[in-house]
Amino acid sequence: MCGISGILSMGNKLNVKKLKNMTDIIKHRGPDDEGFYLCGRNYQNFAFGEDSCEDVKKLAFPPLEKLYENDYFLGLGHRRLSVIDISAKSHQPMTYLNCVITYNGEIYNYVELRDELQRLGYEFETSGDTEVIIKAYDHWGEDCVTHFNGMWAFAIWDSKNQKIFCSRDRFGEKPFYFYFDNNNFIFGSEIKQLLAYGIKPRVNEKILFAFLFYGFHDFSEETFFEDIYVLKGGQNISLNVSLNDNAYNFKKYKYWALNNEICNEYRSFRDESDDLGKLLENSIKMRLRSDVEVGSCLSGGLDSSSIVTLACRQLLKEDENYDLKKFKTFTSCYDYAKEIDERFFSDLVVKNSECSNLKVKPHADKIKRDFESLVWHQDEPFASLSVFAGWCVMEAAKESGVKVLLDGQGGDETLLGYERFYAYALKEKIKDFKILEAIRAFILANKNSRLSCKSLAEYLLYFNNLNVRRKILKLKKVDFIDINFVSKFINENIVDNLLGFKTTMEAQNGELFSFISHLLRYEDRNSMAHSIETRVPFLDHEFVQKAASLPTNYKLRNGWTKAPLRKYMEDKMPQNVVYRKNKLGFSVPQEK
After folding, report:
1. How far is CA 149 from the centre of its chain?
2. What CA–CA distance (Å, rounded) separates 416 from 533?
3. Which of 165, 258, 375, 385 is the most buried (most CB within 10 A)?
4. Mind listing the pLDDT tens digit for each residue in 304-330?
C-alpha cells in the first residue's frame, strides 16, 4: 500500500518541484520510503528524496533537488508503505527493460503469478508483487490486469511504445485521480496532490447539488472538483505519446465487467453455500499474505465476524501452534450510547475465535480535536460521522503496531445485505404473478429483519417507483440550499440512473459499481491517514462473480439477507451473530 504521483507535460518543461510537492503531501500514505523517476527526450534519471530509506540512498541515484533544472517531459513519484518484501529491493519507481512502474496496492496472487512467469522464462530479484506486475505487463501487455487478484492503482511508462498505461482494480479499492488537458496529464492517489501541483480548486456544482440535495456522492467519474476526475474501478487508461509533434492519443476503457447471468445449473442451496464459503476462505487466505503484522476490524456484524472467524481458522491451519492472541481485532463501542454499542456481539466472536480485541471508544472531545484533519484527509465531503468511527479504529491499530487490517466492506453489496433489496425481490415475484410466494416472502422478511410490515410496504413502493422516489426526494426540506442553486439543477435528473433500478441484479450492480465507491474512499483515506493498509476479502472478484451468479432466492432466503454466508457460518460462529437482525456497522451517536 502506497501513494503514487505522475506528470506528463507535453510541450512544456516539467516542473520537478511540483512533482516533489505532489509526493510530499501524501507522506502519510508511505512513510517508509520515497523515490522518483524523470524522463527527458534523450535521457532518464532515478532519484531519491529526503525520506528515502538509507539503503536506497546508497545506490547510484542523485538526490532529487540536483535535477530541478533538467529538461524532462515525464515524472513519476512514489511513497512506500512496506508490507510485502520490505527490503530496499522493492523500492519504487521500479524498472524492467523499457518500462518503469509506480504502484499502489497488493496483488494477492503474486506468488502464483510469479511461478507462472518463471515457467515462461522470467527471473526475479525480489520477493514482492511490484516486480510481478511489471513483468506480467512485459509478457501480457495491457491484458496483464485480467490475471491479477487484488487491489491496485498503478502507472507504467512504456518507453519502447511511448505510452503511459494506467489501471485501477475491478471495484476501485485503490484510488486514482487525474487531470487532463491538451498539454498535461497529471495523476495521483489523492485529490490534494493535484491541488498541490497547482490545479485551481473550483467546485463541481452538479456533483455538489447531487450530494446536498439527494445525498449521493462518489457515483460518477466526476469529483467535487471541476476538471479533476477519478478512474473508475475496472478501467484502464492508455495514453500514447508522439514526442516529435507533441501529440497524444488518450484512450480510457473498461477491462472487466461482472457477468450478471444467473447460472441455470446451480446446485442445492447447501452446496452453493459451501462453494461460496470456500471462495471466501481462499480470499482471506490470500489476504493474510504479508511480511508485517495483520489484524482485523470487528464490528460484531455478520461480515466482519465471519472474516475474523475464518482468518483465525486459517492461521491455525497454517500453524497449529499459532497463538491466536497475536491476531488483534478492533471494535468501536460507546459507554454512553448502548443502542449502537456492539461489544456484546463482538465479544462473542472474540471468545469463539480466541483472538485478542481492543475496544475503541470515539468521543465528542476527540472529534473536536481531529475534525479538521479528518476533513483534510478525506478530500471530499462525507455524509455522516460514521466515518469518524473508522478513523478511530485505524488510529488504534497504528498505535498497536498493526500495519494491515482485514475489513468486512463489500458483504452487503455482494450478498444482498441491505434491506432495500427486499423491495426489488418482492416486486419481481409480483411481476411474475407469484402472489403467494410474494406474500410468504413479505411475512418472512418482516420476521427475520428489523423492518416492520409498514416499513416493508413503504420500501416496496419507494424503491420500485422512480416518479414516487423522485417526488419524495424533491419534497425534502432543503432550506439550507440557495433556491437559485436548486432551480439550476432540479430538473436535470442527475441521479435517475441510481433511483430507478428495475431488477434485483440492476440494484446489486448499482451497489457494487456506484454506491460502494464512497465507502471505499472513506476506508482508504481513514486507513492511509494512519499508514494502515486495509484489505476487503468480500471484494475478491471470484467471490463476487460466484455470488452474482446465484439466484435471488438463494441470497434472500426465508426472509434472511446474505443467506449463503449465514448457512456457511452456522457451525463456525455463535448463532446470535450468525442470525443477528439489527445491522449497524461502525455507527456513531451522531446526535450526541
Report:
1. 14
2. 26
3. 165
4. 999 999 999 999 999 999 999 999 999
